[in-house]
Write a structure and sequence with these properties.
By secondary structure, the protein is of the alpha/beta class. About 50% of the residues lie in helices and about 10% in strands. It has 10 helices and 6 strands.
Length: about 270
């Protein structure tokens, strides 16, 4: 038995990992998480917005490669905005962003009316140059939106003439353009937060600590934490549950293998000279 425990068929390990990952992905368990202060900051900003006077600029600057970390963040914040009735203008400076924006709008269903509660302006090429052009003239930067509608005719854009007409900007991004590009182009005093991949957190924290960022969602955990605050487990919670359960299985096999090794060595009388 001890010999078997030291040489478990890897296929058994793979099957167990598949099972413990599949179950929470199909039905999130909601493993308790302590909410990071940076996530709470973003949530509190959204909670403090006034549906009758405030608008949010929702920047979709992430690619397919980084979507596993960032897309669940965007979904959670979009749900919160829709629930509170905050008009949301989506724009992308990364070409994959428009696709993800459409996915989010579709997922919101009857909670929002397109053109009144939310709009997907589309993709603007040019990286920081495009960011600058949009910041300088957000209403005229696009003639038509992603769906081919005239931007000027959409009710949600009626009172937008300056970037300052957005009470809050949240930028979901995985690289370029990034938070530094926006911080260089935005006028002082604007409320700007970011949702980023986990590996970028150490580079971004100085901007948060200096007050240049109003909040920060940190990778997949940031999405799960936001869902905890919303009390609506979603994709972020499901993936965090799956990740946690997979770690438990791996640690269990490491402990079992090492215990079996030491027990078998003791049974054999210890190492021989």
């Amino acid at each position: 038995m001890l010999e078997r425990l030291q040489n478990v068929d890897r296929r058994i390990i793979y099957v167990l990992l598949f099972i413990v990952c599949f179950i929470p992905m199909a039905n999130p368990i909601g493993i308790p998480l302590e909410v990071n202060e940076t996530t709470q900051m973003v949530y509190d900003i959204v909670e403090g917005l006034n549906p009758s006077s405030d608008k949010v600029l929702f920047v979709m600057d992430y690619s397919v490669g980084g979507s596993a970390d960032v897309h669940p963040q965007a979904v959670a914040v979009a749900k919160h905005l829709a629930k509170r009735g905050i008009p949301t203008v989506m724009v992308a400076f990364v070409n994959d962003g428009t696709m993800f924006a459409e996915q989010i709008i579709t997922s919101l269903g009857d909670q929002v009316v397109y053109g009144t509660d939310v709009i997907n302006l589309g993709y603007m090429a040019g990286m920081e140059t495009a960011v600058k052009a949009f910041v300088e003239a957000p209403k005229t930067a696009f003639n038509v939106d992603f769906r081919g509608n005239s931007v000027a005719s959409q009710p949600i854009m009626a009172n937008v003439s300056s970037i300052r007409d957005f009470s809050f900007i949240i930028d979901f991004q995985t690289g370029q353009p990034g938070y530094q590009d926006f911080l260089r182009q935005l006028p002082p005093g604007m409320s700007y937060a970011a949702g980023i991949v986990t590996v970028s957190v150490p580079n971004v924290m100085p901007y948060l600590n200096s007050g240049q960022l109003s909040g920060l969602l940190q990778g997949l955990r940031g999405a799960a934490e936001y869902e905890v605050l919303l009390r609506e487990p979603g994709e972020g919670s499901a993936r965090m549950d799956a990740q946690s359960m997979a770690h438990v299985v791996i640690i269990a096999f490491i402990l079992i293998g090492n215990a079996a090794y030491f027990l078998s060595r003791n049974k054999a009388g210890g190492p021989k000279a």
